[in-house]
Amino acid sequence: MRAQFVLSEIGVGLRRNLTMTFAVIVSVALSLALFGGSLLMSDQVGTMKGYWYDKVNVSIFLCNKSDAESDPNCAKGAVTEDQKKQIKSDLGEMSVVDTVTYESQDQAYKHYKEQFGDSPLAASLTPDQMQESYRIKLKDPEKYQVIATAFDGRAGVQSVQDQKGILDNLFQLLNLMNRAALGVMALMLIVALLLIVNTVRVSAFSRRRETGIMRLVGASGFYIQAPFIAEAAVAGLIGGGLACTFLVIGRYFTVDHGMELSEKLTLINFVGWDAVLTKLPLILAASVLMPALAAFFALRKYLKV
């Protein structure tokens, strides 16, 4: 097969169907940009889980005098020194526990004033109203229920709280947003495939006389189909290149510069450029294979070669 013939036919096809080709390029670019963004979002959620789950604590809040008067869990009174010693001793014997940190009422009051000093409530609080607590770092954050079962309802314990539950709600929201992006991507992908099929069919119809002559002189099916398939692949590749550009620009201007999220949201460990660059070859490969396969199956039925 002569490469010059294929290239010339690609140019002819792209010029004849310029509007539809442009629509194909835009659809492929948007759908694959969403696809790449979804992959990066999945990586980001995974990175955040690894980072934050390693830092979450289980907190055992102890009863104070105020709780003894108002909280049913503290009906037996404020925690005693013997109860505190027993709780700490039991925590030290548990294999799931990594470290235990005690926070006194004065320390809790100081931390509250540092975080919520501007709140009207802060002015009316006193240290004796704060709760003592044990902050437990687990070897496996999934083992929270072991601590809850052992200490929830024990005398002197007001409540057992797991910070992981708060993070789970955040990650569920992020995963929901990621699934929504994948849904939009799938819709755009279907639109792109339909546009590719229609573009190829219009191109084949406009050149039906040439393809008919080629069939009569014994040209192989692949020889006839190749220009149309290559035409779709080229349009898809241009769209894939735009999708890669969108991802790179998006990462650059949202995280590193422009919005500078990496500096404003220091508590979030953003995925690096290596994660972005590893997605680009996948996007380019999909941008070529997807239109080429769509064109191939569309032509098999349309040209009957």
What's the topology here?
Elements (H helix, E strand, L loop, with lengths): L2 H14 L1 H36 L4 E5 L2 H6 L10 H13 L3 E7 L1 H12 L16 E6 L5 H8 L5 E6 H44 L1 H9 L4 H36 L4 H4 L8 H31 L2
Antiparallel strand pairs: 1-3, 1-4, 2-3
Helix pairs in contact: 1-9, 2-7, 2-9, 2-11, 7-9, 7-11, 9-11
Question: Can you give a write-up of this model?
Answer:
α2 packs antiparallel against α7 (163-206), α2 (18-53) packs antiparallel against α11 (273-303) and α7 (163-206) packs parallel to α11 (273-303). A four-stranded antiparallel sheet has the order 2-3-1-4. The chain contains eleven helices and four strands; from the N terminus they run ααβααβαβαβααααα. The model has no long low-confidence stretch (mean pLDDT 78). It has helices at residues 3-16, 18-53, 65-70, 81-93, 105-116, 144-151, 163-206, 208-216, 221-256, 261-264, 273-303, and strands spanning 58-62, 97-103, 133-138, 157-162. With 305 residues, it is an alpha+beta fold.
Q: Specify Rg, calculated over alpha carbons.
A: 31 Å
| Mean pLDDT over the full residue set | 78
Query: How many individual helices?
Result: 11
DSSP strand content: 5-15%
Could you state the order of secondary-structure elements as H and E?
A: HHEHHEHEHEHHHHH
The structure class reads alpha+beta
The major pleated sheet works out as: 4 strands, antiparallel
Apparent shape: elongated
Number of strands: 4
The share of residues in helices is 55-70%
In the predicted model, the low-confidence regions spanning at least 5 consecutive residues are none
Strand arrangement, major sheet = 2-3-1-4
User: For the terminal residues, how far apart are their CA atoms?
Assistant: 17 Å
